[in-house]
Amino acid sequence: MATGDARTRGRAAYERLAWRDAYEELSAADRRTPLDADDLDRLARAAYLIGNLEAATAAWERAHHLLLEQDAPAQAVRCAFWLGLTLVLHGEHARGGGWLARARHILDDAALDCVEQGYLGLPVALRSLDTGDAAAAYRHFLRITEIADRFDDADLRALGRLGQGQSLVARGRAAQGVTMLDEAMVSVTTGEVSPVSSGIVYCAVILACRGIFDLRRVQEWTAALSRWCAGQQDLVPYRGQCLVHRSEILQLRGEWGDAMAEAQRACEHLAEAPGDPALGTALYQSGELRRLRGDFAHAERCYREAVGRGHSAQPGLALLRLAQGRADDALAAVRRTLAEAEAAEDRPRLLAGSVEVELAVGDTERARHAVDELEAIAAGFDSPYLRAVAAYGRGCLLLAGGEPEAACTALHRARNAWQESEAPYEVARVRVRLARAYRTIGDHDTARWELEAADAAFERLGAEPDRKEVRALLGPSARSRVPRPAGLTPREIEVLRLVATGATNREIANRLVISERTVARHVSNIFGKLGVSSRAAATAYAYEHDLV
C-alpha cells in the first residue's frame, strides 16, 4: 500500500510540475518495488528537471532495457534518444553519440514506420545546421515536421518547426524564420509540449532572436520564459539561461546594476549544474558588464572562464584589449574570430567589434568591408537595433574618412533607431561621435551639448571608460550636474510612472523584465526619497511633478 501511495503521489506531483516531489516520491516507490517503464521515464524527466543528470540517465537507461525485454523497440528508442540528447547537450558527446547510434541501429533492425524516425532525424538536422548547410538542415527539419504531423506528436512538431525557423534565419530569410519560431512558441505557451521539449524551444528561440537583434521578441519570449520557470518546483535547466537573457535586456535598457545582479545569479545557478554550456554565456555576459564599467581585470577573468566553458570571448576580449592600449592583440583576435565565424547569429556582433578595432588601427578598407556586410545583414532583418549598429558603423567610417556631414546623416539614423530600441548606452555613444563630427564642421555649441548629454548618460550607467573620453573632450569646464526630481534615478522614475497607472509589483516586474523583489526595492527607495508611505501619495507626487 505504501509503495502504491508513493507511486501515485509521484505521478500526481509530476502532473502539477512539482519536480522535486515527483523525483522523491517515485524514487521512494522504486526502492520498494521497481518502477515500470512509464514511471521510470517520469523519474528520469523529474531528475533531469531538478538538475540530477546522473539519476536521469540511469532511469532512462533502465527504462530502455526494460522496454527491449518487453519487445517494445520504438519506446526503447525514445528513451535512448532522450538519454543521448541529454548527454550531448551537457558536453558528453562520445557517450551521448553512442546512445543515439544505438537507437538508430535498433530502429533500423526493427524496420518500423514510427514517430521515433523523426526524433532520430533531429541530430542529423542539427549537424547540418551547425556546419553551415542551412538548406540541408531545412529539408531535414521539414521532413521531421511531416512525420510529427502524421503521428500527431506535439513535441516533435514543435522541435521541427523550431529547426525550420532556425534554418530559415541562417539562410537570410529572417521574416519567414521568425514566423516559424513564433509558431513553435505558441505550441509551447499553450501547454501542448512536454516540459523538457518546452525548455529547449524557449531557449533556442530566444537565442535565435538575439542573434538577429530582434529585441522585441527577445524581451517578449524572455518574459514568457521567466513565468514558465516560476511555475515549476525546483527547476534547474533553463532557469540560468533565462537569467542571462534578463541580464542582457536590463543591460540594453541601461539598468546595469540589476543586469550585473542577474548575471551573477545566473553564474551561481548554472555552476550548480556541471556541464551546462549556458554557464559560458553567463560568464561572458558578466565580463561584458565589467568591461563597460572599467573593471578590466575582473572582466578578463570572466572571459577566460567563459572560454574554459566553451564560449567565445570575442568580440568582448578584443574590445578590452583595445581599451587597454593593446591594439595589435585586439586586431589579431577579432580578425581570426571573424574569419572562423560561420553561424549567421554570430557575425553581427563580431562585425561591429571589427569596425571599431579596424578604425582604431587606421585600416579603413577592412572596416569598410565589415560595414558593408553589416548593412547587408541589417537589410534582411526587421530590427531597429541592428539597423542602428550598421548606421553607427557607417557613420564612424565616414567620420574617419573626412566626411563629417555624411557621417552626421548616418549617425542620426543610428541615434533614432537606438532611441526607438530604448538603448541609452548606445545613444550616448553615438552622441560622442556626433560631437566629434560637429566639431570638425565648426558647430562647437551643438558638439558640447551632445557631449554633456552623453556624459550624463555614462555617469548614470557607470560607464567609466566612456565617461573618461567624454570628460577629456569637454575639457576643464565640464558642466555641472542638474538634480533629478527628489533625487530619483531614471529607473525609479520609470517604476513610479507605472505605480501611478495602478500597476502591481508583479505587473511592473513583467513589464520591465525584472524580479518582483527588485521592483519592491525600487518602490521602497521611491517612498523614502519622496517622504511618502503609500502608493496613492507617490502617484499624487508623480502627477504634481509631470512625471506621468
TrEMBL record:
GO MF, any single term: DNA binding
BP-aspect Gene Ontology terms: regulation of DNA-templated transcription
Record-linked SMART domains: HTH_LUXR (SM00421)
SUPFAM superfamilies: C-terminal effector domain of the bipartite response regulators, TPR-like
Occurrences of domain HTH luxR-type (ranges): 481-546
Keyword list, A-Z: DNA-binding, Transcription, Transcription regulation
Keyword DNA-binding included in the entry's annotation: yes
PANTHER family, sorted: DNA-BINDING TRANSCRIPTIONAL ACTIVATOR DEVR_DOSR (PTHR44688:SF16)
Protein's recorded name: DNA-binding response regulator
Organism: Streptomyces alkaliterrae
